[in-house]
Amino acid sequence: MKTGHRSKPVPADSGVVHLIEYLMVSGVLMALLVVMLLLVNTTFMENPANSLSYVAFTDIGNGISTRIVDVYALAPSDGSITTSFDIPDDVAGKDYSVLIGQGTTAIDQDVEVSQGITDIHVSLAGIGASRGVVGNTTGRGLNKISYSSGGF
Fold first, then answer.
1. Is there a smaller number of Cβ atoms within 10 Å at the N or the C end of the chain?
2. Does a structural domain hold residue 136?
3. Does residue 63 belong to any structural domain of this protein?
4. For residues 9 and 84, what is the distance between their CA atoms, to the nearest angstrom?
């Protein structure tokens, strides 16, 4: 090992320069990481959940529409009929609501399944012109479809 003196003296702030550079670069990288985390949540978590909700709501609406048409096909001319069915309690971890009512035209009726911004409409296969169908439910518990020739 050689000993001796340096030709140029080391500035007193040379160690601080490297520390400040490290802190500035680390700060910029942390800011970019935070922005990326916010974007990743929307891109990789919310969009697939919305796509899943759309498909699941379409299936739920078709299932309810089919059950209503089945009750209509079996409806007695004098008397009543009731059926119970179960639909999923939640879709993608969130509750949803089902509304049966007026469709796109004055004669048609549909099943509307909605949750937040996702809103699906499924037609009741044309029975709205002959029988008025109304009601609402959620996914929780056991659901019922009832028909009475005398009305409700």
1. N
2. yes
3. yes
4. 90
115 with 78: CB under 8 angstroms? no
Reduced 3-state DSSP string for 63-91: HHHHHHHHHHHHCCCCCEEEEEECCCCCE
Pair of tokens at residue 120:
């699906």
Strand partners, 146: 82
What digits encode the pLDDT tens for the residues 17-72? 888 999 999 999 999 999 998 888 777 888 888 888 899 999 999 999 888 888 88
Domain hosting residue 118, numbered range: 38-148
Residue 18 lies in a domain: no
Amino acid at 123: S
Segment 126-146, tens digit of pLDDT = 665 566 788 889 888 898 988
